[in-house]
Design a protein that fits this description.
The protein is an all-alpha fold and 225 residues long. It contains twelve helices and no strands. The protein is elongated.
Amino acid sequence: MNQKQMRYALDTIGQMFPDAHCELNHSNPFELTLAVLLSAQCTDETVNKVTANLFVKYRKPEDYLAVPVEELEQDIRRIGLFRNKAKNIQSLCAMILEKYDGQIPESHEQLVELPGVGRKTANVVISNAFGVPAIAVDTHLERVSKRLGIAKHLDSVLEVEKKLMKLVPREEWTLTHHRLIFFGRYHCKAQNPKCEICPLLETCTEGKKRMKLPQVRKSKDKAIN
């Protein structure tokens, strides 16, 4: 995809989802970091249901360290990989208390050193909590980027991120992240994408293939009859 095609795609998706935003409920950088950590291999909807109680019971890092890890596990049991995530949450809380006075650090380099925080989580935190432009590539964004030809099918998550950063103006990185996620979550879904009403069908190789399948079958049926 070239710059002109990318501009058209961004403008079109922007019209479809003008109010795209982070759907993880949080009230500060600490809660956002934990919410994103919990969201790995789990839907935002489930995370929000869990954190509705979690963020009332635990207000600050010290609170998470004041209970046995088994209790925290039970509090987040509905989340996938809850045992490992409970350990990471307590380790993260211990580290930010020791190194950052209980505050979530604002730099990407410091964030990725926290237990359970990878590149994607760090990008979400710096962009949503601290206003630093970033593109966090999740499953939705990766799928959409590859379907639309922004990235190649075999590209790694990091390669997808780099290609998006090159094609999208820096001041639009965070907004593009949200809009592409909304596009992937509510329109260009993994199993049942809405190809038949997609305004970007002409730029989507996979979409055009999907739409041609019924036509091929029909022509074969006619030939047989």
